[in-house]
Design brief:
423 residues; mainly beta; Methylamine Dehydrogenase, Chain H; 3-stranded antiparallel beta sheet; 38 strands; 3% helix; globular; signal; Quinoprotein_ADH-like_sf; Delta_60_rpt; PKD domain containing protein
Length: 423
């Protein structure tokens, strides 16, 4: 063990207690674009896929379906099934945080007092029964006493918190015995369902009803994407904006995602994130259908202001390749997936006129919607599943964490987890 994990955990807890609630956004304000040269200290995940990352103080918590992790220098290799933590700035893997979920971890969100919320398909972790939801101490991985939330069946796919509530989305029908199809707001302390919040998500396009991703604006709005076509009794196809306090559907909608991309996809939206000021958000998608007007395989920015129907402020298309993740920082809109290009509306699994090469990861100008020059490259594989910013801390300037199923980014070996630092 290369550090005093307990001391680091206590430091993280003090930091979190002093900061505003985290977990509302994959992004977070940054004044510049991160470096294209990855840090050298992130550990390596040796198998499976990283699906989720959260930051609590100076600790990064990583979730997925992996089983082995190794320090950056190769000296330490540990069994870590689906969940582990490491220190930002050094990459030191926590020896005491080892909750051992018996299923896949799909979602993470920073909690108060040095804790992290965990969501997924597990039924046990930290030595006890926890059905799809748990709150854990980052110091030692133990379950927080009094947090008793659990879903009936299905999987928790996405989590976020604004300090006053924990928002959970997935394929469940009820939480703690209270019916809340696909979306619920819970007490951050006890996990009890907030009965005053009910978005009434309903009528899936096909397959199972689900909310696959959600994001908080920081200004009272909650954006959700999924298989639904109705929210709060109103027509909302795959994308909706509701009140973060009550779940009431807002008079905001778009028809952009009403057309079908491919019948194999019951939803082709893959991620959503708000700008740091909460004035807009970006949605990324998959699809297969190409063409300059299609919303498949694209990143699209929408302004939150105004009522009624909204059209995208801009759309950046890949030309036939999936985008899976997005993080908005103000300086950039980072997108990840298994794309080969950006600025490619005329491509069909090919580089059309104006296309720029951005394999696996790229950055878009938030104002113009055009690709920025940042081009570190990333193995494509299935794709970059998670992008998460982290703030400056002890011995590091902050940056962007990247989780995936592949082993190289920035032309270097960084297996399944890596980070690009701010300059």
């Amino acid at each position: 063990m290369r550090r005093a994990t307990v001391v680091a955990g206590l430091f993280a807890a003090l930091l979190v207690a002093a900061l505003p609630a985290a977990g509302a956004s994959a992004g977070g304000a940054q004044s510049s674009v991160v470096s294209a040269d990855p840090v050298d200290w992130t550990p390596n995940v040796l198998d499976g896929t990283v699906y989720a990352v959260a930051v609590v103080g100076d600790e990064a918590i990583v979730g997925g379906d992996f089983h082995r992790v190794r320090s950056a220098d190769g000296d330490i290799e540990l069994t870590r099934s689906g969940l582990f933590a490491f220190q930002l700035g050094t990459g030191a893997i926590s020896a005491s945080f080892d909750p051992q979920p018996n299923g896949t971890v799909r979602a993470l969100a920073a909690g108060p007092d040095g804790t992290v919320y965990v969501g997924g398909s597990f039924t046990e972790l930290a030595g006890g029964a926890h059905h799809g939801l748990a709150r854990l101490s980052v110091t030692d991985g133990t379950a927080t006493a009094g947090f008793t939330a659990g879903i009936d069946t299905g999987t928790v796919l996405t989590l976020a918190t604004d300090g006053s509530g924990l928002y959970a989305g997935g394929t469940f029908g009820a939480v703690g015995g209270t019916a809340r199809p696909a979306l619920a707001r819970l007490s951050t302390r006890t996990g009890a369902v907030d009965t005053g919040f009910d978005a009434a998500v309903a009528q899936q396009r096909s397959g199972r009803l689900r909310v696959s991703r959600l994001a908080l604006s920081g200004t009272g709005a909650l954006g959700i994407i999924g298989t639904f076509t109705q929210v709060g009794g109103q027509s909302r196809n795959q994308l909706a904006v509701v009140s973060a306090g009550t779940g009431a559907v807002r008079n905001w909608y778009t028809d952009a995602y009403r057309p079908q991309c491919n019948e194999a996809y019951n939803s082709y939206l893959r991620d959503i994130d708000f700008a740091p000021d909460g004035s807009s958000f970006v949605v990324v998608s998959t699809g297969h259908q190409a063409g300059p007007k299609a919303m498949c395989n694209s990143a699209a920015k929408f302004e939150l202001a105004g009522a009624g129907r909204h059209h995208p402020a801009w759309v950046n298309r890949t030309g036939g390749n999936t985008l899976l993740s997005v993080a908005c920082t103000g300086a950039a809109v980072y997108v990840g997936g298994h794309q080969q290009w950006l600025d490619n509306p005329y491509g069909d699994k090919s580089a059309g006129a104006g296309a720029v090469s951005r394999p696996g990861i790229g950055a878009i100008d938030p104002a113009t919607g055009k690709a920025l020059g940042w081009n570190p490259t990333h193995d494509r594989g299935n794709g970059v599943d998670v992008l998460r910013t982290y703030p400056a801390g002890t011995g590091h300037p902050g940056g962007l964490l990247v989780g995936s199923d592949t082993e190289h980014m920035g032309h270097e070996y960084h297996a399944r987890i890596g980070a690009f630092p701010l300059s």
